[in-house]
Amino acid sequence: SERIESAAIGAAGAHSEVWKKSEAGAARATPADAVALLRHRSPVVRGYMAQHVADHRPDDLPSVYPLLADDTEVETVSGCTIAKETVAEVVVQALCNRAAAESSAARVLLRAAADPGLGPLRGRALGCVAAHEPAKAELVARTMLDEGDRTLLRDAVMVLGMVGARDVAARIAALAADPEPRIRASVATALSRLDAPDAAAVL
Fold first, then answer.
1. Predicted structure pTM score
2. pLDDT at position 197, please?
3. Dihedral, CA of residue 90, residue 93, residue 98 and residue 104, to nearest 10
4. How many Cβ atoms from other residues are within 10 Å of residue 203's Cβ?
């Protein structure tokens, strides 16, 4: 297959035979095989193996980290939604799905969020882990405020609102007139969560 399918696809949620075959093959892989498959020339194989590791091999999660820099595009199918995503985005989503139940997935996401080499993907990783590691996510978000990346700024504001960082409310409110609509929306959401005095004016 040239695409990554979820366990259930289509409007009726039919079981994906491609997914079942890929999952069965991944389950048989030895640790050495798993590492080799994560480096396979096919982005589809890399993506399927990373999903399997995230779901079933928590001790091996550090081995998927290099794929967070993999910007190869693949077609993905989840339910009846077909999309183009990078391998890195597939891996982040797999880690997000496990962050609540698996602390090792949360640790990988935190590492990714703090990694300046991963670009805008960092914001998605941070958003996923904020609910599970709020104190650590807050530290990363505070750093992102100073980095100058517009996408990361938006994500940092959202996370600071999520974790209740009231001491930065005034700094967030100062962004209320930002020319970027998505940043203004993040500011409004964050201030409402912080119950900040500035929220009414922004909202």
1. 0.89
2. 65
3. 70
4. 11
